Amino acid sequence: MSGVNTVIVHYHELALKGRNRDSFEQQLVGNIRLALKGLGIKQIDNLRSRIRVVLPPQADTAAVTDRLKRVCGIANFSLAHAVPLDLSHPGLDQLSAAVVEELRATSCSTFRVTARRADKRFPFNSMDVERAVGAAVCVGTGKRVSLKDPDLTVYVELLTKEAYFSVEKIPGPGGMPVGVSGTVACLISGGIDSPVAAYRMIKRGCRAAFVHFSGRPLVSRASEDKVRELVQTLTAYLYGARLYVIPFGEIQREIVLNTPAPFRVVLYRRMMVRIAEELARREGCWGLVTGDSLGQVASQTPENLSVVEEAAELPILRPLIGMDKVEIVDEARRLGTYETSIEPDQDCCKLFTPAHPSTKTRFDELRKAERALDITALVKQGLDKAERSEFTFPI
Ligand SMILES: Nc1ncnc2c1ncn2[C@@H]1O[C@H](COP(=O)(O)OP(=O)(O)OP(=O)(O)O)[C@@H](O)[C@H]1O
What we know:
Elements (H helix, E strand, L loop, with lengths): L5 E5 L7 H18 L7 E5 L2 E5 L6 H8 L7 E9 L8 H12 L5 E8 L8 H16 L2 E2 L6 E7 L3 E5 L3 E2 L11 E5 L5 H11 L3 E8 L7 H17 L1 E8 L1 H10 L5 H19 L4 E3 L12 H8 L6 E2 L7 H11 L2 H4 L21 H8 L4 H11 L1 E6 L3
Parallel strand pairs: 5-6, 5-7, 10-11, 10-13, 11-12, 13-14
Antiparallel strand pairs: 1-3, 1-4, 2-3, 4-8, 4-9, 7-8, 12-15
Helix pairs in contact: 3-4, 5-6, 5-10, 8-9, 8-13
The structure holds adenosine-5'-triphosphate.
């Protein structure tokens, strides 16, 4: 689309009241600024109910679009043409002429105009604008109006001194701007589910710190490399993130040597949760996030989820608990994490996996088994070996 010089961003306003609304908007404007870093954009304005991004001449609109599609809190946005608005002249000639010129260059045969006013004090209402611009397009291009099923919709926004029009609304992720819901610690495994779980929380406005347990030194760094790639992908939604990698192989060996085989999987998980919780507190997180989905594997039965839960004081958030695998896979594909997640690795959870893991672990049995372990020393061992790295966006 030629002549595009502005992006108009919309967010869902329902349930936004008072101070919530101010902080939501401020955060969203700040996040848009971070997301568009390096693209030469200087002016981003918070207007009533929408945000305006002024594009410099020769802006890379494909890159702007690609980045804005990942800004949580955006319901939709459009690449628009700005036209000066003269309120003393109700004919809207300048706007109509610009729309006619734009539509002449398109092959559509039917169209409709959908207008919105930011300011109800205008001397005309939305329908007047739709009629005036629509009539000009019919005369100027020979195209026909179809209100029900148009080939193309022209969206017009009227602000106080300018009108904006565009021919496409591009969906954003929806949700809330990252930063309005505190920080959570996401346990990320390198599999399909945990990056999707992290994203679900990011989309509800959380910043994220990531924690990965690798089977090192008993296995290679393959899972760590995958996790780094996954965190980098998610950083496009977060703008900055921190990852802790904990070599977990020795701790697993302790568990294997000292406890009954059927409890291993749950005991690994309880140790992970304890170590992650310490890191979460350091990072100021209010919850732990896992990719558990009910009944998917042995560690995700109601009984086993409950005994893992008990090892943590912070809430364990499981945003995928009620999702089917196909739904999770679809979301991973949309997110761009799926291809990385399916690369082969040696996940630490597959180390010494028992042939018959307990699926209905009882608290009393488990506590008895754990008495054979020096939990405090093992948590310390994990924390002492944790390796921290930082991720930024754009890279
Ligand atoms: N090595 C690990 N490091 C960090 N978190 C882990 C690790 N293994 C498991 N988890 C956490 O526990 C959750 C459940 O893991 P599990 O292996 O039982 O199921 P999964 O369906 O294979 O999950 P995923 O697809 O995320 O690997 C994961 O989603 C993740 O949040």
